């Protein structure tokens, strides 16, 4: 591993030892990176110039570069486009709530899951992010705004459970008291339903919230929207959710994107309620963000309300997701996609 921002304290101690430094230097290094969120070795003033030079040579420090920031005039939501060391771009979102600032981060460059209504997956998967690149999204936004981040959602571009090891490392590091010290209970990880890794995550006994992208009341409709559903049935996915609750005691969230005429009827609500009734869960209804490359439309306001009311009649806890940043490239992957399209147009033939 050459990404120093992905290293835990024990690994940094090994680095210091290999470079002929005292072990306590590792703690200083860790604090500069994960508490003070510096963007270069030059800022680490209590480390010798010689040590910093060696670090720069062997473990280059690459903070994310801000390419573009869109700020909503409606609610102050900010969408960031960051450039990685290799020239790829990712996006992250800062949302301000009364309970604190929440940052939604990406876990991969692109995505291979192919969900039909999502801009993130157009173009497929380029590569997974390191834990350090995931952390950096939170650090750069916090440094850019000068405000503390209290909640993190791994729900941007990419499938977090398709980047399992980096995700788990990220969770341990972002919640480390020696770093940002964000409570695991304030972390949410979204998955489209990779069943073996859902079960594996349950056995980690983390205190994070697992959010399942469900988006349909039955297998047939789910397969039409989400290719992953060809591999794992709804019964398998929901069994993995029950196992997650059994192992962690953490209530599940079901994300349900309402697509006009596809999965938003009263019959769909009845079927969904039958599948999840009795589970310790919360349903988050999301009026889908239309994207140019797909012909899906969002459900009407009345349809959304009726769907919510039907679920509540079954005793299911449900909310309609408050739309944030409606006047900017709000949907996952939209800002990155538009940037890539513009860049390609400017390139010579």
Describe the protein.
This protein has eleven helices and twelve strands. It has helices at residues 9-18, 24-34, 49-58, 131-145, 164-174, 195-202, 219-225, 234-248, 266-276, 301-313, 334-346; strands at 65-71, 78-83, 89-97, 100-105, 108-110, 125-128, 151-154, 187-191, 209-213, 252-258, 281-287, 317-320. By secondary structure, the chain is α/β, with parallel strands linked by helices. The strands form two sheets. The chain has a ten-stranded mixed β-sheet with strand order 1-2-3-4-7-8-9-10-11-12, with helices on both faces. It has a two-stranded antiparallel ribbon with strand order 5-6. The active site is at residues 91, 332. Belongs to the radical SAM superfamily. RlmN family. Its EC number is 2.1.1.192.
Q: In oligomeric terms, what are we looking at?
A: single chain
Enumerate how many helices there are, as a single number: 11
Largest sheet: 10 strands, mixed
Distance linking N and C termini:
38 Å
Low-confidence stretches: none
Please give the radius of gyration in angstroms: 21 Å
GO molecular function, one term: tRNA (adenine(37)-C2)-methyltransferase activity
Family: Belongs to the radical SAM superfamily. RlmN family.
Main location: cytoplasm
Function: Specifically methylates position 2 of adenine 2503 in 23S rRNA and position 2 of adenine 37 in tRNAs.
Give a brief outline of the structure:
The chain is of the alpha/beta class and 349 residues long. The chain is built from eleven helices and twelve strands.
């Amino acid at each position: 591993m050459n990404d120093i921002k992905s290293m835990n304290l024990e690994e940094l101690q090994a680095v210091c030892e290999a470079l002929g430094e005292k072990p306590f230097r590792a703690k200083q290094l860790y604090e500069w990176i994960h508490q003070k969120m510096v963007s270069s070795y030059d800022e680490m003033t209590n480390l010798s110039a010689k040590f910093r030079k060696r670090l720069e040579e062997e473990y280059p420090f690459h903070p994310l570069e801000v390419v573009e920031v869109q700020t909503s005039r409606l609610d102050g939501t900010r969408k960031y486009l960051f450039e990685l060391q290799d020239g790829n771009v990712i996006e992250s979102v800062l949302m301000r709530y009364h309970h604190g600032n929440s940052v939604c981060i990406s876990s991969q460059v692109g995505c291979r899951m192919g969900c039909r209504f999502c801009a993130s997956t157009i173009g497929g998967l380029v590569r997974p992010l390191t834990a350090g690149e995931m952390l950096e999204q939170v650090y750069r936004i916090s440094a850019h705004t000068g405000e503390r981040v209290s909640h993190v959602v791994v729900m941007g571009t990419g499938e977090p459970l398709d980047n399992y090891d980096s995700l788990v490392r990220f969770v341990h590091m972002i919640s480390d008291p020696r770093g940002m010290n964000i409570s695991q209970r304030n972390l949410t990880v979204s998955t489209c339903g990779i069943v073996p890794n859902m079960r594996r995550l349950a056995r980690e006994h983390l205190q994070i919230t697992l959010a399942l992208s469900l988006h349909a009341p039955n297998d047939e409709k789910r397969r039409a929207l989400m290719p992953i559903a060809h591999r794992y049935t709804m019964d398998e996915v929901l069994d993995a959710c029950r196992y997650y609750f059994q192992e962690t005691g953490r209530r599940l969230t079901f994300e349900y994107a309402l697509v006009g005429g596809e999965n938003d009827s009263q019959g769909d609500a009845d079927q969904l309620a039958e599948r999840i009734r009795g589970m310790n869960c919360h349903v988050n209804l999301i009026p889908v963000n239309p994207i140019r490359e797909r012909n899906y439309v969002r459900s009407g306001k009345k349809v959304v309300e009726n769907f919510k009311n039907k679920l509540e009649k079954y005793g299911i806890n449900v909310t309609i997701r408050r739309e944030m940043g409606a006047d900017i490239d709000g949907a996952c992957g939209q800002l990155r996609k538009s940037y890539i399209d513009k860049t390609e147009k400017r390139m010579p033939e």
